[in-house]
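Our platform keeps sequence and structure together, in a single record for each protein. Such a record has a labelled line for the sequence and another for the backbone structure tokens. This encoding replaces a full spatial description with a residue-level series of whole-number codes. Below, we set out a record of this kind in full and without editing:
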Amino acid sequence: MAQVIRRKKRKDEIKVTVAPLRNLADYKSCEDIQREVWRLPDIDIVPGRLLLSASRAGGILLGAYSNLGDLIGFAFSFPGMEEGRLVQHSYALAVRMAYRNFDVGFKLKMVQRKEALKRKISLITASFDPMQPLNAYFALGKLGQLAVGYEENLLGAVAGRADRALPTDRIVTRWNLDSSAVVRRLEAGPPPRDYRRDLKQRPLINHLSEAAPGLAASSAVKLNCNEEQFLFELPANLPEFRHRNLGLALEWQGKMRQVFRHYFKRGYAASDFWLLEQDGHLRSFYFFEKRKL
């Protein structure tokens, strides 16, 4: 059943309807959305026919529709097993560029969560690029996912991608759909942060320094932190680095590998992502804490 989601009334009000895809044309439109959002060549596009077959075989495929009935985004997950437990694995979430500021992705994920729970599935696994702060904020900060694994060059070389010069490293996440922490985060949203207070309360395992105008490098990272919680800072504009200074982008990817693999092995998880404003500048941090067994 379609779900109509409205924003609070304002000048730029839009209405988004999230529902299963309506017809074969919608499945074909998913291919166009992938080309627009990720600039993929056809060989790397998930075909509409495969999306159709996967959704009929237990996958969850949802479309977001504008008030004119146009497909403006979609979310796709497929069934999997984890330690004998049935899960959904979130493979794709894409929203047309013109609708990026209307929480369309969040609305798609909310209906995906509801559909999974209706099927008695309480875990959705996923992965994202650790070099993309906004993706990290969406997954960890807004949805309440838990980052528990790191995969180096998971997808191999992806032809035609803007990030093709970097290995396709990915952070692996678990979204525990019915946990109290997730429910609180979805209902209340990310809590407001004050950089003076919050940064004083948790240790930082690295520090940034200017490498060039608009480009920051990291100090050596501290690998012997034993605190219950700590922060790892990265530049908020890190996605720009791969285009402006590939060598520095590769250095940052090396830092990511070092931090995540080391601390995941020591029993930590990245359970949140902070965006803080300081003196008119945005700062971003992965928030780590020891996992509760």
